[in-house]
Design brief:
Helices cover 38% and strands 12% of the residues. The protein has 440 residues and is an alpha/beta fold. The two termini are 24 Å apart.
Amino acid sequence: MHRKTKQVSAAVLATALAASLSACGSDSGSDSGAAEGSSPAGGKGGKVTIELAISKASQDSAFVNEELLKKFEDETNIHVNLQLLPSEQITTVLQTKLAVGETPDIVQYNLASAVTDLNLERNFEILDNEPWVGRVLNKDVLSANGHVYGFHVSQDTGMQGVVYNKDIFKELGLSIPKTYEEFLAVCEQIKAKGITPLFMPFKDQWATNIWVSAALADYADKNDPTLFNDLNANKKQWNEIPQLEAIIDQQYQLYKKGYTNADVLSDSYDMAVGKFLNKEVAMMFMGDWLIQDVETKDPNVHLGLFPIPYADNVKMGASPLGGQLFIPKQAKHMAEAKKFLEFLGSKDVAQQIVTEQKYVSNLSDVQTPELPEYKQEIVDNYITPKKTVITMEGYLQVDMSEMYRSFQDVYAGGKSPKEALDAWNVKFHQLMKDKGVAGF
């Protein structure tokens, strides 16, 4: 989920991200008091300082609450110093730190982006045997290649589909569409009432991929479970998947039929909240973080989320969990870093975080609090009955920016969906070859 972590990305994965793909904030603020090395390790009284690298946009992360960090220090005599990194440069800075061995003890990042950007397997500690792992309900959102690498107390961030205005649907007597044909009919009825059915903020490359990522993941889950492994092993080619070409074209046809904002390549994600607040648009392909952003501004706006209706009986897309904590293999204070995760995962502390943040708990002995209506619906209809599927970003090993750029070219009229996949296939091969992946 790139999403907000690469903007973030988003989003998915975003997803980016503060404590989740939904928690990115402002980059305003100062590094004063949080500069690297401001508190040396092993201070007076044997106190150890561990360094936690985090983007400035994630300063409101649930894991770096001032009172929480003080409680940890009082109990363990371990001080947590925050390295506040510029959000737009965090990937480059972390790549450099990992390359030269100047690693922080803990990194907050997004799982999918950590796999592709930070070489997760090579650079980060496997956490399978940590004491809190046995209480985890959903290991998939913390795992890559069969191992737990990340820490989080929530399992619900980064759900991706169609964000929709419930009030508009109710006023027009519309039901959630179950197929692409039903979706077209819904768009037509909304357009007939003078409301823009869909907002496409495709100035932001990553936003072009929400429909594609969730739809292809669902298709693979149902029809071709080895698809992503085959792509990563050069056994299949991106431009030889007819279903993917059709999925890309489905989204493009919504634009061609006039169901979207006219300036898709000029409009950006940061316009989305206002569009929904003003009831200028009815729907958007995005994650549940957008719902939280809108309803925080105006609780009288009622939004919901349904799966990408590229076909019938679709599962909800789930970005790899954002805002996780990872421990580099070269951490100078490995034991202390693991102790911090153990502290956060302890029953009482985790319960405090989950309750305050209204998370869906990912620990068996921590209770999920009363949730906002939209989130409870997601839990009841998709998470609990296991009708979710990890989005495409969770399976790929390289940066997908060039794929998004190719999708933009479709809307600019420069490429057909097939030509976009041709271009991405060439770039994908080069990225995999550069990374030294077998078979390329």
